[in-house]
Amino acid sequence: MPTLHLHPHLHLLLISLLIFFVSPSFSSSIVNPSKVKQISWKPRAFVYEGFLTEQECDHIISLAKSELKRSAVADNVSGESKLSEVRTSSGMFIPKNKDPIVAGIEEKISTWTFLPKENGEDMQVLRYEHGQKYEPHFDYFSDPANIARGGHRIATVLMYLSDVEKGGETVFPSAEETSRHKTPKPDDLSECAQKGIAVKPKKGDALLFFSLYPNANTDVMSLHGGCPVLQGEKWSATKWIHVDSFDKIVDHGGNCRDMNENCERWAALGECTNNKEYMVGTNEYQGYCRHSCKLC
Ligand code: PD2
Ligand code: ZN
User: Fold this and answer.
1) Is residue 236 within 6 Å of ligand 1 at its C-beta?
2) pTM for the complete prediction?
3) What is the pLDDT, as a whole number, of residue 51?
4) Which atom in ligand 1 lies closest to the alpha carbon of residue 170?
């Protein structure tokens, strides 16, 4: 039996290549910009094909399966969570860094989006069964309670954990269709998805879109929804990302302090009146620049 004698350097190189291609944790931590397609500029939206491996998708589903609860939505005024026909899926949250696979996905998201891990919320996993949907909405909030932690949501990464036979597309009904996107839509898109720019769920793909313009104003074209699932089942995982740290604990004690280093400057620019909810607060919530707004 002939034996193969390799130069020691070549030997090492072959072992490294083997680890690189076989180990899921290695191969999954790489972000490859050539796999990203821009689907719209208004809003800024991109699809990364094969962002998650099969194993990553299956792992997230297995963590979520036994803990699903009927999904809620946030009340626009109070920010309180409530059940609604707007969103009929079931869901749960996976704590950040729950295990090495979850941490690896979070790392990959921050590399792709150029946004720090600490700005992200816990990952939300959703399951949509036949007929279940998420009506068009914005991912940014208008209530001070939800803006308080980490500021506005700037971006969303929506990861598809399963294929869906029919329906379940994510649709942007107000997106501006540029001539480049006027190419005929595939006929396997549901009627709901024909009403805008749509992304068909494909296991492992991820959609990134921005809810704020680069100047930090909210982008009304980022309106988006999950079309009803018509055949099969849809699993998705959402990472909402804020403009600031979501992990930092903010002291809401009654003491008179500004809670943002820019308060003084904003107050001088008239934001205490122009942006009263955030700066001063409401009857229910304290604002973030009470000192600079001379309330205390
Ligand atoms: O699962 C979806 O397609 C979807 C659609 C719209 C998810 C969200 N929004 C979300 O999690 O914000
Ligand atoms: Zn959404």
Assistant:
1) yes
2) 0.76
3) 98
4) 3
